[in-house]
Amino acid sequence: MMTENESQHSRIMTDQMAEYITRVEELAYEIKVREAMGRNPKTVRPELTMRQCLDLFREARISGAPVVSATGGVIGILSIEDLILCMRDNRLDAHVNEYMTTDVLMVRDSDPLVDALKIFVNAKVGRLPVLDGERNLIGILTKGDITRSLLKALQQDYHTEEVRRYRASHLFEDIVSDRTSLILRYNIKAHDFSHAGEASSNIKRALVRLGANTQIARRTGIAVYEAEMNLIIHTTEGGVIRVEIEPHQISIDAYDYGPGIKDIELAMRPGYSTASEEIRELGFGAGMGLVNISRCVDQMLLESTVGKGTRLRMKIYLQEKKSR
Fold first, then answer.
1. Where in the numbering of this chain does the CBS domain appear (predicted)?
2. Fewest CB atoms less than 10 Å from the CB: which of 38, 146, 165, 284?
3. What is the CATH number of the domain that holds 248?
4. Residues 89 and 72 grouped into a single domain
């Protein structure tokens, strides 16, 4: 019987269901914002007039620009929609700070594209300023930038897949034992966003080299990424991700020793998150991590005790279980 602080999800992920996890979705987890963003973005100052910005937008052929202070910090966003509103008001001589949007959502150059996509979907914005590790403005990211980056990556995949693919698909077949497995273990540090996604990328690469099919590698990569982000965002001391690869299944174990989850049933609901405002401002903590995991794995068990820690166990089956 399940205890009140345990929740179990179990189902078989069929090939038909797994087809919805596309290579494009996988690339969104792999490509960093810095690889897709536009560099040296045009910026405007808050004391400029809207007429001056109209001329700048037309000459530079842009539809928006960050508004920066005298010290270079981003304090707002001015869009073509703001210019249209200004023209409707017949106030082209008004200053930028009267029409700019001050609630600015931003991303970091080290973030994966999937985090920027989540912001675009949830916030309905047209562009995102990109900051480096020292919070300096170094680029701008639009939906068009993401599309071009994904298309370029898909093209590179097509031309280089056979060249760069290395497989050891007979590894398990060549070893005689009662039980053969490969164990991969990664220590995940709390709030270490600069290394976010490295464990999932390494695990996915290992699976490909072991001969796993594309869908298995994608499902495992996404599940591990979301578990990895949960450790980075929600833990105080970080945690561990342990992956055991066997001929018939992949077992994923993500655990930490605090602070625990008060209400697991609530945590499983789409959109629910306990992430801080600071984390949300970075574009994380949308509350879809456990939902995305459940979509990718065949079995999921979440256990947590407040003050002691949380353990998330997942399984992906590589072969159909034989009936007895």
1. 37-94, 100-156
2. 165
3. 3.30.565.10
4. yes
